[in-house]
Design brief:
The chain has about 110 residues and is α+β, with helices and mostly antiparallel strands. About 25% of the residues lie in helices and about 35% in strands. It is built from 2 helices and 6 strands, in the order αβαβββββ. The strands form 2 sheets. It has a 3-stranded mixed β-sheet. A 3-stranded antiparallel β-sheet has the order 4-3-5, with no helix packed on it. The chain is elongated, with a radius of gyration of 17 Å.
Amino acid sequence: MHELSLCQTLCQQLEQELIARRLERVLRVELVIGSLSCLDPHALAFCFAAIDKPPPLQGCELLIRRQPAQAQCRCCQADYALHRWLDACPRCGSLNRSVEGGDEVLIEQMEVL
């Protein structure tokens, strides 16, 4: 389960940021998850709630926003949001496209004390 190890890594990164910035607690963290990242936002939220967190992260709220990939059809040049790998071009139905992004997992912002 990728989500469990991702949550553990996320907690380590948040704790390192607290130490580096001499802050006390993380109240909320907002993640951006690419639509092609193969991560399940519900499983990620479940794992984050279930894992043991160090005291500065206890009670931390996790907000997750899905970000679609951007695609450009190589046949008709249409630009469109790509939510799944098998989504075809909405204009011509082609699967021949270039894809940008969609696999990212980013900490967009955090609310701290």
